[in-house]
Amino acid sequence: MKEACAEILAKGFRCLYDRSLLGCDGAPVGAYYDDSWGGVASREGYGELGCRNADFGNACYNDHHYHFAYYVVSAAILVKLKPEYATNEPFVSFVETLIRDTANPSRDDTYFPTFRAFDWFDLHSWSRGVVPSADGKDQESTSEELNLLYGIKLWGSVMGKPVLRDLGATMLALCALTVREFFLMKSDNIHHPADFVTNHVTGIFFQNKVDYATWFGWRYEYIHGIQMLPLSPALLLSRTTEFCTQEWNNILSRLALPSTDPWSSILLTGTLALVDPADAYSRLMDIDDAFMDDGLTKVWALYWTATAAAGTPSTDPSIPEVNLALERRTEASSEAPTFTSQWAVDGLFATRWSPAEEDVAPWIAVELDGIYQLSHIVVVWLQFYPASYEIQTKGSGDTWVTLATEVGRAGAVKTDLQGSVNWLRLLCHGGSELRVFEFQVYGTLDTATTTTELVETGTSTTTTTPFDGLNLAQGKPVLASSFRSPTEHAYRAVDGMLETHWASALAPEQWIWVDLLGAYDLTSVLVLWGSDFPGQYSIQTAPNGIDWTTAAVETGMAGAVRTTFPEQVTGQWIRILCHSNTGCGSIDELRIFGADPSFLSTTVTTTQPGASASTTPSTSEGATTITTEGSTTSTSAATTGSRPGAVNLALNKPALASTGLFQTRAVDGSLTTQWSSLPGDQTPWLWVDLRGRHDVSEVVISWASEFPAEFRLEAGYSAAHWTPVITAAGQANSEVRVVFNPVNLQFLRVLCMDLGSSSGCSIRELEVFNSGPPETTSTSSTTQSTSAATTGSSSVTVEATTTGTTTTPNSTDSGSENTSTSTMTVTTTLAPNVAERKPIRASSQRSPTEYAARANDGDESTRWASGGGPTDPRPQPCATGKS
């Protein structure tokens, strides 16, 4: 079936670039290369004024980023299904010409302009082509643009072109962020007027205005549905559950959505399925195939809905449902050649389990990694399914107990279940052939059950697949030193399919690495070598993909070679480095197993009694917060101390913020620049990527005039999951230093939790230290006082050991005296540079890169230099300088 579908798709492409082939009589007229504008344009309508009536104006370059997306995505799927098309020159040339037309990144390409439609300032594309409009260009179907960028990423992946893959991934991520911020409006959207936000989608977004409409009508179904086409995985990057819930409750739920209107199938699948998948599934089942949208099959709509995460789960809605059966241990009554039971729980819909032909009572079972309270299961059968099947769990002894019975049918079949289980089995009845593409189990951990007894399956003959846990490498970014042929690319080693492989060139010191997209405590690495393999290879780890450490050295051999680490090995990048003059040979699969590392939690420290009455208490145990603004107060908890030579890990590292521009100015090492959140952002945040894991114990934030009454520092190994570290208070135009017990992290986020009287947050500099602040000019003194207050007149940190005699209000003896020792930091912040980035002119410049604006751009690595010499007779008062 897969081969038949792939051949139909292949024939469609052949007819596009060669209509003379047999059977291509009904193919479109096609396109041509237009040397006037440098692009691929439709032959339909190119003679019309404005190109308005044919191919949606494609001849005038309108909507190319919509139209060509369907070809690029389909082409990537075809190469995935039929790898030989990766070397089919006419096919590859056709597809990459479409990519060059829409997203050409090269200025050296004389045939196409760079990024025809994509606006790198607005971070999305514009329609309208070369036809002028009084309201400027516009963008209507954001989902179709996401489909193109998704297609470019897929094409780069299947063709083994990492630069193209990364280009598509980058544009996709940026565009999805823009769509969420400006086109799909949640109730708290700050970019549009409040009364317009209630529409939830913008409609036609012009450069000069926004119309809540479409080019083809004013119906709500059109305005909202055009933002959901096509229903590809890329759509989920922009349509969050929170947004869909608001859109459905406030707009779409009030529409009739009859089962005879094709737009109903789109709205149910694109919105309701992400809010209430059970209701959406039921309503989609009531729609006849003839009334589905012509670009949305019923099978795909039902699968999409059956596997969608509900918008109101019983657990934390920020945590998606997890398939408990994914890559768990399986057993089966039998297995057809190459169709093992493990393929039913590998998370891929291109693989399957099938029983042997002679098996009259086939079954497949999966063992979960604990005892779970069931919610539901999903079984994906497609066209080969049993007449009926029982869903069973193990009872006492060796018996199986039936929980439910289902009628077999094509598609993704969801069954709601209750009960506490460790094993689940599908016992099939009837059907000439069975194909289980996915067996998924959902539920929550049964915390009341602490132990589980594993029992055998009696006298049944079973085939058991060894269980290693979740394969962390599958589907992750991968890179290799080389590949032997166009069908043996690096990603083949982590695609979860034993039928494919990566093979290196015949050269010494070849390697392949995989980025796990987060640091893990590794337990083992399994390499499935092909028939050719190296004599010896190293398994290496790195926190950043650059600095490699060898964790083990192994001897290569055909088949599976497992390496188990006796001690904890932590890494994000894992590399196989082959020590052979003939390369690595071939790897069918590279599997990596491990678990999420735990953060080093802050611990409680004993604070010394008797702090000054003017001190500010710490807001987290085991930590110290020090605020400095001319006169400074210290906390009652003793600081951990700062060692000289500590490094500011955040300096010039990548940064991102919730709103506002210039977030990198918060880590540029200059107090004369700053990041500021935008008005309306109620919980602003800023994070910095330290580009590797570090033990962090001290953070310094130089706040500008806008500051939070309360902020929280959060740690993460990725920018997706955050763990609170400490809460503290901000202060206007002041440096706030927070010292805490070491926390291992790669990403650090400042979350402004309570703005107080401020309208936002402004950070002049965020500094993150591994073991303390950098060395500073300091003085030490011992004074007797009732308050720790020091006034500084310059940017000098003064460390003083202060012994004070204070009265402790809360002590039993109100007159008792206590002695405390604390660290006090005093910093005076320089006033902002009022000349920075202001208009500036000079009498001359020495070179094209030393122009006047370099003197006040806030960057000390650039400069202005005047001209000089006999070729320039004008007065030259200066040589070089920065203002």
Question: How is this structure best described in words?
Answer:
This protein has 883 residues and is an alpha+beta fold. The protein has five domains: 2-186, no CATH class; 329-465, Galactose-binding domain-like (Jelly Rolls, Sandwich), CATH 2.60.120; 478-595, Galactose-binding domain-like (Jelly Rolls), CATH 2.60.120.260; 623-824, Jelly Rolls; 834-883, no CATH class. 15% of the residues lie in helices and 27% in strands. It has eleven helices and 37 strands. Strands 8, 9, 10, 11, 12, 13, 14 and 15 form an eight-stranded antiparallel beta sheet that branches. A hairpin with a 4-residue loop joins strand 3 and strand 4. Helix 2 runs parallel beside helix 4 (142-158). The longest helix is centred in the first third of the chain and has 22 residues, at 162-183. Mean pLDDT is 77; it is low at 310-320, 449-468, 598-643, 772-831 and 869-883. It holds the Pfam family F5_F8_type_C. Residues 312-403, 464-595, 635-771 form the F5/8 type C domain. One of its GO terms (molecular function) is endo-1,3(4)-beta-glucanase activity. This is glucan endo-1,3-beta-D-glucosidase. Residues 605-642, 771-829 have a biased composition (Low complexity).
